[in-house]
Structure formats: structure tokens, C-alpha cells
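Suppose you are handed only these lines of text.
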Amino acid sequence: MSPIKNDDLLNVAVEAALAASNLVMEASDRPRVTSHKGITDLVTETDLNSEKTIIAIIRSFYDDHTILAEETGQDTNISDYLWIIDPLDGTTNFVHGYPSFAVSIGLFYKNEPLIAVVVEMPNMRMYTAIKGKGAWCEGQKIKCSETKQLERSLLVTGFGYEHEENWENNMRLFKQFTDDTQGVRRLGAAAVDICHVAKGSADGFWEYDLKPWDTAAGILIAKEAGCMVTDLSGNQFDINDNNILITNGHIHQNMVNNIERYLN
Ligand code: IPD
Ligand code: CA
Ligand code: CA
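From them, the structure of the protein bound to D-MYO-inositol-1-phosphate can be written out as follows.
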């Protein structure tokens, strides 16, 4: 058990996520200063400012914890506590004013997810979870959907910045699952997509090539809402895996079987 109270850790995560999301929302009305990490992989001043804000708040409470943040990497602290931060998930949406982006903060204790906060924007919906205590959205406990059949399901996926083999595979899955289900959405902010499965607005999510900061908070929120979280083969998901499948559980094995069939 964590020697620091879970509620105290959650309060810090919430304070950091709220400060960062307010900063992101204020910046969304101003021109965005953009530079490129890759041809289509953008980073804005807001990504950097949000990250700075989150780290400063976490550091003001726990200066010995380890922090892994998308834009600045991992610090040199050695600790059982690892904060994993995506200061702005869905940067491309943010830059274009497309309404799906988020701040995501996950805290692992001894390599297991313990605390999670995602603030979905621009609607400022906050999702939180504590391991073993359930998942919440705006003060309401959330549960994944009860949809049992794939043909009744709504799915969501994403496409990373690298257009390589996994991207081609995902195009095939996108096409096939569009045929098998009531639809596949592609919104552009993985943390938001995962929270939508957790609260039952979608029945399943999969993606290739996500990074730990994209999923660290989402996987705990999803699990605590009753979701199943594995890799695309149905094996236990590790935060460093390069593919992920999250569903309401009922359609999980069916999706795993279909994925295997469609890619072979
Ligand atoms: C991206 C988003 C997107 C996903 C990409 C991620 P970023 O994160 O989550 O939905 O498809 O793979 O890199 O770069 O906007 O933080
Ligand atoms: Ca991200
Ligand atoms: Ca990001």
C-alpha cells in the first residue's frame, strides 16, 4: 500500500490537471505558436507551458517523486512513485480548434497505476480514478457500456504520426470494423477516446504506437469503470506496449479474434 494517502495524491493530480487545463483553455482563444517534432507531429507553446505548470505543482508537494513528461522526458529521481504526464493530448485538434483534447496525469506506484486524472476539453469534463475505488466523471461514478454484440457497438480508434506498417494495419482494421459495427470514430485525442469507453459512450477503443503518457491515466479510469484492457492479441497490457485494446469486456474476445483474422 502506498505510504501517502491516495486522496492526497489525487488532490495534487486534480490541482495540477485543473491548473493546466485552465491554461490550455485560455490559450485556445489566442493564435497558436507551433513548431514541429515531425512533419505532422506538432508542439505548441501551450504544450510546454502546461507541462511546466503540472510539474511545478507536483514538485511543490513531492520533490522526490519520479516524473515522466512527454515534452521534457524523465527526471533522475528514483522513487516508487512515477507521475506520467501528457500536458496536452490532441495537440493537432487544439491547433485547429477541433473540440477534442485533454490534459492527462497518471500516477504509478511500484509500477502499477494508482491515481488518474484526465480533463477533457473544451467541455472541461474531469475524469478521475483511484485503484480499487472506481472511476468518476464530474462527481458521478462511471461504468462502461453493457453492449454485448459487436454489430451493436460503436468503436473509436486513432492513427499516429508515423505512416508505416502499423498505420497500414490500422487502416485495414478501421475498414473491417466499420463494416462489423455501428461505426468507428477517429477523434484525435487518445486519452479522451479511452474515457469515452470508460463512461460507456463508446464500446471499444484500439490504437497502435501510443506512448505511456497517452494511456497512463486512461487505463486506470477504464479498468475502474469495468473495462478490459489488453494488447491487440488479448494479452496483459504493459504501459510500454505499442498497441492497446480497451473494451467493455463483452466484445473483447470477439475483437481479438477479428483482429487476428483481419491482419493475417
Ligand atoms: C496523440 C493523440 C492522438 C493519437 C496519437 C497521439 P498528442 O497525442 O493522442 O489521438 O492518435 O498517436 O500521439 O501528440 O496530441 O499528445
Ligand atoms: Ca498524447
Ligand atoms: Ca501531448
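What can we learn from it? The first helix runs from residue 6 to 27. The two ends are 43 Å apart (CA to CA).
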